[in-house]
Sequence to fold (152 residues):
Amino acid sequence: MKTANAVRAGILPIAGVLMLVLAMALAAPAAKAASVVARIDLSDQRMKIYVNGRHTATWPVSTARRGYRTPVGTFRPGRMHVRYFSRKYDNSPMPYSVFFYGGYAIHGTTAIKSLGRPASHGCVRLHPENARRLFSLIKQNGKQNARIVITR
Fold:
């Protein structure tokens, strides 16, 4: 026959778990993450940033030059790296990389004078400061809340 202490020993852990679940349910809900959309217009060589549907920035970009292509469509961010170097193109620096389709990424560039016209092997190049801003926005709000839209 079980003693009162043995019964309490079995009930108290369950009660503790129930109290924890109840406390979490009553806690204030976390702030909702913003939606982030980066719209890249290949014909205009511009990226427009929208946060919760509100236009917040427009930046010049460089996309694929003749003989290369930048994929068109709607993508979710994949891998993200503050510091990355191209394995395909001479170990070129790709700061604040946001990969969105295989080896294609949005990233900073040192070729700032080329921004605003096609110049890349297919990636979307940004001024390094703007790449940092986009990287931070996506990281802060979560990749699941971000989209990359590329149109002709």
